[in-house]
Amino acid sequence: MTHLFGTNGIRWIIDDHSIDYPVKLGLVAGTYFAPGNKVALGMDTRTSGPMIFNAMLSGLESCGCDVIDLGILPTPTFQYAVKELGIAGGIIVTASHNPPEFNGLKFIASDGTEFSKEQEATVEKIFNENAMKNVPWNQIGKQYRERHVQDRYRNSIISKAKLGDNHVRTVVDCGNGTSWEYTPGILTKLKCEVLTLNAQPDGRFPGRLPEPTEDNVGSLMMAVKQHGSDIGIAHDGDADRAAFVDDNGKFITGDQSLALFAVDALKKHGTGKVVVPVNTSMTVLDVIEENGGEAIITPVGSPLIARKMMEIKAILGGEGNGGVIFPDHLYCRDGMMTAVRMVEIISHNGPVSELIAQLPEYFLRRDKIRIPHGMRNDIISRVKSDAPGEVLDIDGIKIDHDDHWILIRPSGTEPILRVTVESKSEEQCKNILADNLNWVREIIKDLS
Ligand code: MG
């Protein structure tokens, strides 16, 4: 049995599969969405995008689905479009932050959220049982092109922005991805100064790799410093994430920016629930508590965060990788909205470096341990039973202490365990990580 879906859709290395693979996935998707329904199709800027887009298009139409072609656009814009157009759902061809040789698919439900685990299981069942059904010639799907909903998306963000008196000077690094027609234009409309880097679409990603990590955004850090800008903004390939650089050219971690958004949301609402995954920093958890809010913890994965937010009417949700969900906008991560909200915060409260300096500081370290195949569950249950005190076991095992925590979590895709430690001092963090790596290695030895 083949599992198609990872934490965020289906991904593969282009050279690992022939075109038969996306053609089959198109037929599977068409069978899932069923004849007579409208399904949106979009893509990011990857070189393999049009090839996979067209394979999916053929599959969907041959199963009787009408296809709405949305062209190249960011994932959040695509999710907005599916919801706005009131259609059965959509598929965007994207590998998000992965290197250029990857591509993939994200399946979007009619309400604009990513597919639930149950929906993914139904798709996998059709794939594994080869239960695809195509329709006769006179029921083949039609094809429409839609480019207006993208403007409505931009206007929706612009209309929600409430900037303060400080004029904000930005540098936007689009990373040759889908944000090039969105963030620079939106910020210009909001009367910010906008300089751009890598703002031309190019699926070879010649400017930098698509993941906006500190290592990949060196040019942005330099540009912010050189131009005396207030903030640097870097998106991943499909622009559902935004990473930031402060006014000194220093990289802001995703947990630090999430903490600023949590403070902002709690100031606006007075109180409320903020949904974050189990690997979130104490920096975020502390400010939620200090500002009168409540942190709700989920397993890792943005679709789970989004669904939990809807269920409990949360005021904010997000991950420490720059993916933030603003429920007054959309129930999905949105890099453009994240950039605008950051600019809003600076326009009211002044230099972002000063806001970051006020946040509680912690040190985080992680490492991984290779584990023998098939032993993952045994190791995790042993870690759970041997751990001191109470543990949180919704996704791996999290052991909480007053001034530090440890998370031991199996990877979803590789035979490894990730061990993460966060604590008040760097020295303590290093020692706790070493102790816990040894502890887990002993358990593995014992079980082998
Ligand atoms: Mg992404």
Strand proportion: 15-25%
Number of strands: 20
User: How many discrete structural domains?
Assistant: 3
CATH topology of the largest domain: Alpha-D-Glucose-1,6-Bisphosphate, Chain A, domain 3
What does the main sheet amount to? Answer: 6 strands, mixed
Strand order of the largest sheet: 1-5-4-2-3-6
Helix-strand makeup class: alpha/beta
- CATH class designation of the largest domain: Alpha Beta
Distinct ligands: magnesium ion
The gross shape turns out to be globular
Assign the CATH architecture of the largest domain: 3-Layer(aba) Sandwich
| DSSP helix fraction | 25-40%
Written description of the protein model:
This protein has 448 residues and is α/β, with parallel strands linked by helices. It folds into three domains: 10-149, Alpha-D-Glucose-1,6-Bisphosphate, subunit A, domain 3 (Alpha-D-Glucose-1,6-Bisphosphate, Chain A, domain 3, 3-Layer(aba) Sandwich); 167-357, Alpha-D-Glucose-1,6-Bisphosphate, Chain A, domain 3 (3-Layer(aba) Sandwich); 363-447, Alpha-D-phosphohexomutase, C-terminal domain (TATA-Binding Protein, 2-Layer Sandwich), CATH 3.30.310. It has helices at residues 20-33, 49-62, 75-85, 117-128, 149-160, 183-189, 218-227, 254-269, 282-290, 302-312, 335-349, 352-357, 376-386, 426-447; strands at 10-13, 38-43, 66-72, 89-93, 102-109, 143-145, 169-173, 193-197, 231-235, 242-245, 251-252, 272-277, 293-298, 316-318, 324-325, 363-370, 391-392, 397-400, 404-410, 416-423. The chain has a six-stranded mixed beta sheet, with helices on both faces. Helix 8 runs parallel beside helix 9 (282-290) and helix 13 packs across helix 14. The longest helix is centred in the last third of the chain and has 22 residues, at 426-447. The radius of gyration is 22 Å and the shape is globular. The protein starts with 9 loop residues before the first strand and ends with a helix. The model has no long low-confidence stretch (mean pLDDT 96). It binds magnesium ion. Residues 96-97, 236, 238, 240-241 line the site of magnesium ion (MG). Magnesium ion (MG) binds next to loops.
